[in-house]
């Protein structure tokens, strides 16, 4: 059974940084793309970033480009989201996500319908 556990959320001032982590277990981590989504209060869950199974390619939402970086450490079964220059509109619960498509690219996770497994989320609050 695949389990995803996020950590690293918290309260940060606008302009600050946070690094989210997602520890995966239950299957061979390095064979699958990983991604991050977020959901702000009253809004739909939206894609943030994804990384291919090998780490060789990444894909970002326009809102994340230039500020967020997704990476993975296959030896630690962990995917990261480094968030810099945070804005109040980045406030949301951030969810780790993956799917059952072995050796697929990062873009396989660009829509919620492409996700088969979700973490429980970690709250990021950016104050102005």
Keywords:
4-stranded antiparallel beta sheet, mainly beta, 128 residues, 7-stranded mixed beta sheet
Descriptive notes:
- The chain is mostly beta strands.
- It contains no helices and 11 strands.
- It has strands at residues 3-7, 10-13, 18-25, 32-39, 46-51, 58-60, 68-73, 78-83, 92-102, 117-118, 122-127.
- The strands form 2 sheets. Strands 2, 4, 5, 6, 9, 10 and 11 form a 7-stranded mixed sheet that branches. Strands 1-3-8-7 form a 4-stranded antiparallel sheet, with no helix packed on it.
- A hairpin with a 6-residue loop joins strand 5 (46-51) and strand 6.
- The radius of gyration is 13 Å and the shape is globular.
- The mean pLDDT is 96.
Element layout with pairings:
Blueprint: E1 3-7, E2 10-13, E3 18-25, E4 32-39, E5 46-51, E6 58-60, E7 68-73, E8 78-83, E9 92-102, E10 117-118, E11 122-127
Parallel strand pairs: 2-11
Antiparallel strand pairs: 1-3, 3-8, 4-5, 4-9, 5-6, 7-8, 9-10, 9-11
């Amino acid at each position: 059974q695949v389990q995803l556990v996020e950590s690293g959320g918290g309260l940060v001032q606008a302009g600050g940084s946070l690094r989210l982590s997602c520890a995966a277990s239950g299957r061979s981590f390095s064979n699958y793309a990983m991604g991050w989504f977020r959901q702000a209060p009253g809004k739909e869950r939206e894609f943030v970033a994804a990384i291919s199974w090998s780490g060789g390619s990444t894909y970002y939402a326009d809102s994340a480009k230039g500020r967020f970086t997704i990476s993975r450490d296959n030896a630690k079964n962990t995917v990261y989201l480094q968030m810099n220059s945070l804005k109040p509109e980045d406030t949301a619960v951030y969810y780790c996500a993956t799917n059952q498509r072995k050796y697929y690219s990062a873009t396989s996770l660009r829509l919620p319908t492409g996700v088969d497994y979700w973490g429980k989320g970690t709250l990021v609050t950016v104050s102005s």
